[in-house]
Amino acid sequence: MRGNMKTPVSVLRLPRGPDPNSRGFDPNSPRFIALCPTTLSSSSSSSGVGDEEEQRLRSDLRERFLRTLLLMTDKRVEFNMHEKVRVRARFGASDIDVLNFQVCDLETPLGVQKEALLRCQDVISCSFEL
Questions:
Q1: Strand (E) or helix (H) holding 123
Q2: 22: which DSSP letter?
């Protein structure tokens, strides 16, 4: 018996990016420059020891974050987003700059989307069971 069928949501097709493979945006565009800084901003003093310690800490945090993304793959994840919106989906992947999450079977208050991209800017937190 299939009494709990979710309402499908229509697919929004976004325009292609400027490169031939449509894999991203122009790295010289103001949007790319604003969202993807290429240098680390250092909040510590200009001493070399402080910079090395900060770099080590950043490296440790980055490694933990990437390991978390690997653990999330193919698991049901709940995303808490702005405006108190909660959505659930099966996590697929993240782009290289961690600007978007690719998810499957996204359950939203409006229905279910088979495939979707979530902007990381809109995500406040996410949780999943190990």
A1: strand 123-128
A2: -
130: exposed, middle or buried (C-beta count within 10 Å: 0-12, 13-18, 19+)? Answer: exposed
Phi, psi dihedral angles at 83 (to 5 degrees): 65, 25
Q: Please state whether the predicted TM-score (pTM) of the whole model is above 0.70.
A: no
Q: Amino acid identity of 87?
A: V
For 26-63, the pLDDT digits (tens) are 667 776 677 666 655 545 445 567 788 889 999 999 89
Task: Tell the residue number behind the tokens 């088979």, with chain if given.
Answer: 114
First to last CA, the chain: 30
8 Å CB contact between 94 and 100: yes
Which residues touch 44 (CB under 8 Å, ≥6 apart)?
50, 51, 53, 54
Tell me if residue 86 falls in helix, strand or coil.
strand
How many Å apart are CA 39 and CA 126, to the nearest integer? 27
* Tokens coding 32: 């790319």
What would the 3-class secondary structure string for 44-65 be? Answer: CCCCHHHHHHHHHHHHHHHHHH
pLDDT, residue 5, reads 63
